[in-house]
C-alpha cells in the first residue's frame, strides 16, 4: 500500500522542563552586558603609549654602559613646544631603558652670512 502525503498534520508544542524559564530579551541583553563588563575589567589592555613605545630595559650590560655614556648629556638647539615634548619623551625613554637621567643643554647657534 503506497504512503500518501497528509498535509494537515498537527504539530504539538512541547513545554520546556519545569525548572527552566524562558529568558526574556532584556535579560539576554543584561547578561551580554555583564559578560562584556567583566571581560573588560579582567583583561589587561595597554595604554596607547605603551602599545608601541615599550621602553624595555636593556639587558646587555656592555650596550647599556655604552649607551649610558652617550645619553648623559643631550644638546638641544631651540626652544618650542615640539622640542619640549621631545625632551620629555627622551627623559622617559632613557630613564626606563638605561636607568640614567639625561641632562639637556641649550645650544645657541650664531649664523653669520649663512654659516655657523
Summarize the structure in words:
- With 116 residues, the protein is mostly helical.
- The protein has a domain at 57-107.
- The chain is 44% helix and 9% strand.
- It is built from four helices and two strands.
- It has helices at 25-42, 48-52, 61-70, 81-98; strands spanning 73-77, 103-107.
- Strands 1-2 form a two-stranded parallel ribbon.
- Helix 4 links the parallel strand 1 (73-77) and strand 2 (103-107).
- The longest helix has 18 residues, at 25-42.
- It is rod-shaped and about 110 Å long.
Ranges with pLDDT <50 over ≥5 residues?
none
SSE-based structural type: mainly alpha
Helix fraction?
40-55%
Give the CA-CA distance, first to last residue: 111 Å
Number of helices: 4
Strand content: 5-15%
What are the secondary-structure elements, in order, as H or E?
HHHEHE
Rounded to the nearest angstrom, the radius of gyration is: 34 Å
Mean pLDDT: 79
| Spatial order of the strands forming the largest sheet | 1-2
Anisotropy-based shape:
rod-shaped
Compact description:
With 116 residues, the chain is mainly α. The chain has a domain at 57-107. It is built from four helices and two strands, in the order αααβαβ.
Keywords:
single chain, 116 residues, mainly alpha, two-stranded parallel sheet, 4 helices, rod-shaped
